[in-house]
Amino acid sequence: MSDYPMPTGGTVADEDGAGSSSALVRSRCCWKLNWKYVGLIIGGEMPAAHEITILETLAMLDGEHAGLARGVARRDYVLWLGSGISLDRIVGVRGVIARVLDYLRERRDMANPQCRFNRALDEILEELTAPERALVDLDQPVAAWPADNSYAILTRLAGKYSQVLSTLLEGEDEEDFLLWTAVDVPNTFTTEDPDVEHLCIVMLALESAFNNISSANWDYLIEAAERELTGGNALLDVCIQAADFQAAGADVKLLKFHGCAALAATAPPIYRPLLIARLQQIVNYHNNASYGAMRHHLIGLIQQRRTLMIGFSAQDVDVQQMFMDAYQNSQWAWGNPPPAFVFAEDQLSQGQKLVLSSVYPNDYQANRVAIEASARCRAYGKPLLLALLLEVYALKLTALCDLAVPNWTDAARSALHAGIRRLRDKIASGAEPDRLAFTRLFVAIQSTVLHLYHAGRADPALPYHPITPTPLQRVSQLPASMGLRQAAVVMALLGNGDADGSWAVEAQAPAPDTPPITVRSGGRTTPIYVAANDEVAVKMMAEGIFDLEQNDAVLILSASPAGRQQRSPVRAPGRTGRQAMREVSMSGLLADSEDDTDMLELFKRAAAL
To answer: Do the Cβ atoms of 364 and 330 come closer than 8 Å?
Structure first.
C-alpha cells in the first residue's frame, strides 16, 4: 500500500461565443473552444502534479514525455498501481491507520491502562516520536483532532503501516484481526463506484494499451469500472495465486499482488490469508508459495516490458526486492527512449529511487539527476490517465490518416495530424473542473458515435466502444473495408475547419433527436453523421437517427465506393428555406484530392458548410 495527496486540480474556463478562438470549455454538456490554457503551456513552468490540467498534461506528452505516450499506445508499458489512484473513493493508508486507532480507542478501558486495547494502542504509538506522541488525544476520534496533528501522526504511522497492522490484540486468534475487523476490509474496499482513474484504466485496456495491470490495492474499483464500461462482458481476469493464472482466459490480467478484498470476502478460506499487509508477510513475500506464480510473472514483466507507476510509492520491501531480482536478466539501458521506468509523481519517493538504483546499478550514481528527471512524469493519476487516453486516440487516428493518404507529402499528412490534435485539445479543455462528469459524458458521446458508425444504432448493453481493439502498431492490420482510415480523415477535416474558423465543432450528451456531433457556422447548427458504409446509413435511417427529406444535416459515408453519385449538396429550398441532408463520400474525396488544402475545400463544398 502507498498513497500521495491528490487534490483535484483545474479551473473553470470562461465561456466565450461560438466560433471564437477562445479556451476549451465544457458548457451545457457541450465542448467549445477557448485558448486560455495554451498560454500556460507555451510560456512558464509546468504546474505541480496535483494542479496540472488535462490540456497541460497533453502538452507534456507532446514534449518531454512523447515517448511514454507512444509506448503506452504500443502496449509497451505495464501499469503498477497503488492506493493513490483511489484516494477520492476509499481510505488510503492514513485512513486505514485512523480506523485502527479509532477501533482500539473506542473499546479501551480508560480506568485500566493494562486492558488489551490500551496495550495494543501503546504498542502502535511507540512508533511515534515523543513530540508526535504528545499530539495524540485518545479522548477524541481521529477525525476530531486538529488537522496538522492528525496529518503528522497518521503520516508517520502510514510509513510503518505494516508494523501497525502486525499488532496482535490479546484474546483474538487471527493474526489479521486488526485488518479484517478493525479496518473492515469486506465492507471498506468492495462497495464504492469507480473514479476517473479506474474508468480510464479500463478504457485504455479496451484500446489494447495495457494487457497486464499490477496493483497493490485490495479494492474492487477497477473491476467495477470494467462492469460499467463493458456491460458485464469479461475483459479482466483477477490473478493472485497459481490457479488464477491457470484459469485466466480474458484479454487482460489484473495482477493483485497484495490480494483482493472482494475475493477475500466471497472465499475467505482461500483469499483472506492472501491479503498482504503485515510486516512478516511483506518481508517473507518471496518465500510465500501462494504468491510464487505471481512473483515469477511480475519479475518477467519487469524484465520484458517497461514500467509505469501511478499512485504507488514502492515503499514495500517485497516490491523493491522484485525489481532488484528482475535486474539480473533485464539490463535495461537508461538512455534508450522511451524510459523503461516512469513514475507519476511531483517528486520521486525513496522507494522509487531505490527501484531506479536497482534496475540501473551501473549507471545510477554517475547519472542520478538525469535518470530521475527522465523517470518523473509530473502529473498524478487523473490528469495523466485522461491525457494518455486522449493521446492514444490521437495517435491511432493519425496513424489511420497516414494509411488513408499514403502518397501525400509529409507536410500534407502533418496537416491532417494537426486537425486531430485540434479536436484532442478541444475535448481536453472541457475536462475541468469536474473530471468524473466529463469522463462519463465523454464515454457516452464517443461510444454513441462509434456504435452509430459501425452498426447504425446505439447499444446500451455495450457502454464503451474502442476506436480500435488493437495497439497502435497493429492499426494497419485492421481491414480497410471498415472505413476507419477514411473516418479518421473526417475527424482531421473537422478539426482543421474548426481551426481556420470555418465552423465550430461541438459534441452533446446523446439523447433522442440530439445528434452527438454538430458543427456551428454563423447562426446555423448542422448535425454530422458518419457511417462506415451505405448499409450502415440505411440502418441509421431505419432507426430514425435522421430523415433524408427533412434534416439539415451531413451524412458522411466512409467506405462507400468512390464513384457513387452524391446527392446534391444544397437542395432547392422551396417554401421552407431549409437545406436537406447532404451525402459525402469520403472515398470519392480521397480519390479527387491532392493534399490537405484541396481536400478541405472539396469537403466544405460537398457538405455545404
So the answer is: no
